[in-house]
Amino acid sequence: MTRNNLPRRQFSASASRSEAITSNPKLGKLWRREYFSANGSLEFSKAQWKSPVLAHEVSTPKGAAVWENAATETTPPPIPQSQPLPAAPNDASEPPHRRRKRLKAEANGEAPLPLDASSRLSTLSSTMPAASLRRLLTTCLSLSKPRLSFLIVLTAATAYSIYPVPALLLPTTTASPSLSALTLVFLTSGTALCCASANALNMLLEPKYDAQMSRTRNRPLVRGLIGKKGALVFASVAGVLGVGSLWFGVNPTVAFLGGLNIVLYAGVYTPMKRISVLNTWVGALVGGIPPLMGWAAAAGQSATGSGEWQELLFSEGSIGGWLLAGLLFAWQFPHFNSLSWPIREEYKNAGYRMLVWTNGRMNGRVALRYAILCFPICVGLWWFQITDQGFLVTSSAINAWMVREAWRFWRKEGHKGSARGLFWASVWHLPVVMVLAMLHKKGLWEGVWKRVNGESEEDMWMEEEVIQVPEAKGRPLHVVRALTPAGS
Fold first, then answer.
1. For residue 61, which of 16, 29, 26, 12 has the smallest C-alpha distance?
2. Transmembrane segments in this chain: where (predicted)?
3. Do 25 and 133 sit in the same domain of this protein?
4. Same domain, 130 and 263
5. Which of 442, 458, 473 is the last residue of a domain?
6. Residue 11 within any structural domain of the chain
7. pLDDT of 437-481, one tens digit each?
8. CB proximity list for 100: less than 8 A, separation 6 or greater
9. Which of 133, 341, 345, 432 has the most CB atoms around it within 10 Å of its CB?
């Protein structure tokens, strides 16, 4: 039996595909692209072949119309050709060679990091009715960068909570053994509004460049979910309310620092990104100001002098605020240097002067250097009696984790997943250290222990001290008994 006489197998699926391709040439081209792209990389083709395809069904435009409607609802509006967007993963238009490159990068841990909260909120906002209040509120929340704002508010609240309670505010003097909770409310709400204003102004100044980067091209101004006038109104209202809340609810020094942060972030850091790599240091300076705000808010309640900025920021008791500010300043380098590494080429193409592409080796050294600096800063918090000895152990563990990842990031120059490892270490590092500082506040657990043992509140805070006053101008030696804070 010759080869030509062999019976041919009949496949019903192949026949139906052939009929479908004959009636729709575009579908045939798509199928061939799928075949040479490792059979299954294209989401559109997957959707087409999930159910049996009949010839008369393929010829109708119904399926295509449904796909087009779904795409317009979940993707940003088209951007001019002068601002090309990188091909999204699993996109039907992704060429095979780019797909192979992307999969190789993902295998090496070099894939771009997940989108930020602003991008996710923009997608959610686009699914809501255009004139609804929910869409407006969701868009405004997206402008404020909620995750970043939350971390900033956490640092301010931490500084406020671990401020050493002076004898003036002890329960024998006042009705409350701690600082004012109402002041804390004004501090956190005012700081959050100032952050929202600064972040909205940042987006307002660079939508053209945000459209060129994968992490930012889904932001509300790029997608057209809100106009520039609307974003400016939101930023202005948030800024005025934020600074006003800090002025009337906290003190003028904290209000000045909140307004200064808006100016530095939107007016200095944002334009400087296209001028010099020093923009990262300016951004780190902006991040170090919120802990000073929290510290100055607490110090203002126990000021013995005029309560001016010199006393709140540069007195002997202000060292804790500056240590926390230094911790935030140092933390931002391992965080941002690892965050920017997977998208270094996008920064370069968009014209941002970032150390990650101008000097990649130095980018890793800087991240490692400032990660190591977190150790002495945490030791300083214990040395100056801000936290107890337990903070040395717990903070050293989380600092060691970030230093280890920073060392891998420097040695491997960001490859083999080292950038992703340092990024996630830095994401967890900041909130964990802030919470540990609050849990290890000096004197916190001593007070809990005394309460468990049944000691009275007055005995916990005060003890009797005998003071001998020497003879002076004919007066005999006498003894004075006074109550002073316990352990002083």
1. 26
2. 148-169, 181-205, 226-248, 254-271, 278-300, 312-331, 367-384
3. no
4. yes
5. 442
6. no
7. 999 998 877 766 666 776 654 554 444 444 454 554 555 544 444
8. none
9. 341
Q: Distance between CA 341 and CA 113 in Å, rounded?
A: 10
Q: Are residues 62 and 206 in the same domain?
A: no
Same-domain pairing of 149 and 43: no
C-alpha to C-alpha distance for 65 and 308, rounded to whole angstroms: 66
Beta bridge partners of 472: 475
Please list the alpha-helical segments (H only) found in 384-443: 390-411, 418-439
Q: Tens digit of pLDDT for each residue in 67-88?
A: 333 333 444 444 443 344 444 4
- What contacts 66, CB < 8 A, 6 or more positions away? none
Q: Is 5 within the bounds of a domain?
A: no
Residue 219's identity, in one-letter code, is R
Q: How many whole angstroms separate alpha carbon 487 and alpha carbon 445?
A: 14
Quick check: helix, strand or coil at residue 125?
helix
Statement to judge: residues 355 and 375 lie in one domain: yes
Contact 389, 397 (CB under 8 A): no
Where in the sequence is the domain holding 95, given as residue range(s)?
20-78+85-107
Using CA atoms, how far apart are residues 154 and 191, in angstroms rounded to an integer? 10
Using DSSP's 3-state secondary structure scheme, residue 287 falls into: helix
pTM comes to 0.70
Cα(263)–Cα(225) distance, integer angstroms: 25
Encoded tokens for 292: 């000073």
